[in-house]
Amino acid sequence: MPLTKVLPVGEVPENARKVVEVGDYKVLVIHTDGRFIAVDNRCPHMHLPLKNGKLEDHAIVCPFHHSAFDLETGNVKEWSPWPPVVGKALGAIAREKALPVFEIMEKDGWLWIADKPEN
Ligand code: FES
Fold it and tell me: Is the CB of 18 within 6 Å of ligand 1?
């Protein structure tokens, strides 16, 4: 998978986040527990930005309706039934979907991210 040079490692210190454009995606880079993680910044539930989501138990929790996604695999840990009243009807369009995760690596002081998600 081709990797794109996105930004100097120093621009994302421990516990920081940054959104970068890679191909057709806005990728959220998270530096946590000494490592870098790259996921789609669009929540698969209703496509709202995940940038300010809380990190809990190796997952990112969407700040809007609290769906949670594993940071390694992107798998759904919790899927929001929101909005509750039309939740069933909406189920057809907001069916449970994993969060796209991207390969990310450090090389020569830069972060490199794959052009397409791994999942
Ligand atoms: S947009 Fe993320 S849970 Fe609804």
Answer: no
